[in-house]
Amino acid sequence: MPRLENRVVLLSGGASGIGAETARLVVREGGKAVLADRDEAKGLALAAELGTAAHFVPLDVTQEPSWQAAVAATVEKFGALHGLLNAAGVGVRNTIEDCTLEEYRRVNDINSLGTFLGCKLAIPAMKASGGGSIVNISSVLGLRGAAHAMAYSASKGAVRSLTKNVALHCAQMKYNIRCNSVHPGYIDTPMIAPRLEQNVENMSGRQFLEELHPLGRLGRPEEVANMILFLLSDESTFSTGSEFVCDGGLTA
User: At what angle do helices 150-172 and 114-128 cross, to 10 degrees?
Assistant: First the structure.
């Protein structure tokens, strides 16, 4: 039996990167994927690729009305909501001294506030659908510090903590909703593409990032998507409030 048969999953950041690869797996495993993203062109193209099991909705993760509309459109289109992936995010290099207030707010609004709104507004629809699974994309930098990624690391640490609180609330309320965080290393996605061309310590950006991982390479989006699929499926029904690391050994 397909692992997500008749499950409806809403994916923020679903038009590219990890979100897009997860959407492909959701459909392949018998589910319905709602691609929620600011990039309408990519979102519509991916929805066309995936066929009638996919649907695109515009989403600005920093705006509560936008989330409300995305959740409502999901239920209207497919009749339920069983899974949520909070994958929309932005990465910025800065230190505590050179980060501006505007930049700090922007990174945290997208990465942390966006995840908060997704969880808050999806839970009622998931509860009405009989429960399900929320997966929040944090980062290895949500588990450790990074002097030159201060705002990003802080935002992803907030996602890690938020996940645990959401998991405990849903468990205590008997909603049958699980919530877990995934912590990727450096994954070969559009988010890090600019860094791959920047020389670091007499190496290309790609070589520098690859050598941070004991496996000696960047991760692939589909490798993270496979972990997310496990968490969305019934194979992980005793996992909630937990951290799942997919980082090629970086944190080890």
Answer: 20
Give per-residue burial for 126-152: e unless 16+ CB within 10 Å, then b: bbebeebbbbbbbbbbbbeeeeebbbb
The Cα–Cα gap between 40 and 52 comes to 17
Q: pTM score, two decimals?
A: 0.95
Q: Residue 243: which of 115, 148, 125, 157 has the closest Cα?
A: 157
Q: Half-sphere exposure (CA, 13 Å, Cβ side) for 128?
A: 11
Nearest to 142 by CA among 102, 89, 192, 182: 182
Burial of 194 (0-12, 13-18, 19+ CB in 10 A): exposed
Helix, strand, coil percent values for the chain (each to nearest 5): 50, 15, 35
Query: What are the catalytic residues?
Result: 152
CB 111 within 8 A of CB 159: yes
At CA 180, angle to CA 186 and CA 244, rounded to 5?
A: 40
Domains and CATH numbers, the chain: 8-189+221-246 (3.40.50.720)
pLDDT, one tens digit per residue, over 137-156 is 999 999 999 898 999 999 99
Residue 194 pLDDT exceeds 90: no
DSSP code for 111: I
Distances (CA, A) of 252 to 143, 182, 243: 11, 16, 14
